[in-house]
């Protein structure tokens, strides 16, 4: 018998993990990607002639990638060079207000004691215990589950785990829960930032997102050569197993015949027939009919759901001095609540944003002196997901740039303003890259306890059409999107086996 033919739309990390597993199992896999290289949101751009990451910069939950590579007879070490980080990030509120978080919670507690007092250090240790309990409660019952629901979550937890589910405060907001642990507003602001990892506001996101604190304590790694090496390695492994990749070619329509997905039609008119289709696009593209009218019914309408955060980013290579940058740095604004009200309620760029700076030539230790050094930088601020509307305007982005670099200067970081060689990305550019999202980078926002259960699962409403990526379960982020691809591949293989029987 001929191997079943599978078409995967999009070579993002979810599509790549599915392609690798399906090709390893002997299926005939074709991946169609409109960009010129694999990776999706794991992008690389060149600024001043220097390649640098322009998307995710943090590698966590290594076990996800270890399991994926082991499943296809490989090892992660054979294809990627990873360096564990001792310091997770450096945080600043002003020229003399700095705090490093360490991979070792005890070292973080010592740093917090010096920064905010012994009482806050003790509260931090209690917070770590709560974050660890939240993570272990949800790891198998929710994160690994193919299609979670509140009833299913309780069922998988069992009577023994019911108490744990109640103790993780699923109905509380992250901001309120952090107020139980931290009296220093700066620490509350620091740990509230974890909600932005899935594109959400800490004032609306559930307290369960504190599990990200434990995820980082389990390990953060730097990838030698940049994050783009991850999708490149997975694409190479899938190709070695027979998968075909068509780059620079976009899908115009998912073909649905007899109630089943039967292939795709490309923008140049070519049709690729298949026994199943796996869509690694944002589900908003399906909902809005951007892949044809028939797939619109594949997922529920997004009425009443809020898009996740977008961003304005600057990739630049400039001399830096005045602040001892590490690999990951966060410079906080003075009014955190106003920042998220600007983005989610007023639909505008923040009056004063919090700024994330990834210094891609630095590690987790101070270098001698504070400059000047020429660094490859990715600077990022939160933005409203309105890239499919005439906002923000170039003038608004220029004002945002001014306030962003003024805040960095206030915290002691001196660098030249972005010049013409800087690569600037804003919501309109992200909408072009990821149609239907308005530039939202994480699917729907995780606002309210129901939001996590409202993400589509791997099986769509159309037989033969499967879903992967950060806009479906288990959520946004590189490891979660990788898991979504594995869940989709598992569901597809199971359904093919059932059809054969």
Descriptors:
15 helices; alpha/beta; 8-stranded mixed beta sheet; globular; FAD/NAD(P)-binding domain; 21% strand
How does this structure look, described?
One of its GO terms (molecular function) is oxidoreductase activity. Keywords: Carotenoid biosynthesis, Oxidoreductase. Residues 13-493 form the Amine oxidase domain. The chain contains 15 helices and 20 strands. The longest helix is centred in the first third of the chain and has 26 residues, at 118-143. α1 packs parallel to α9, α2 runs parallel beside α15 (478-500) and α3 packs across α4. The protein has 501 residues and is an alpha/beta fold. The chain has three domains: 5-42 and 227-304 and 449-500, FAD/NAD(P)-binding domain; 86-103 and 219-225 and 309-441, no CATH class; 104-213, no CATH class. The strands form five sheets. Strands 6, 7, 14, 15, 16, 17, 18 and 19 form an eight-stranded mixed β-sheet that branches. Strands 9-2-1-13-20 form a five-stranded parallel β-sheet, covered by helices on one side. A three-stranded antiparallel β-sheet has the order 10-11-12, with no helix packed on it. The model has no long low-confidence stretch (mean pLDDT 92).
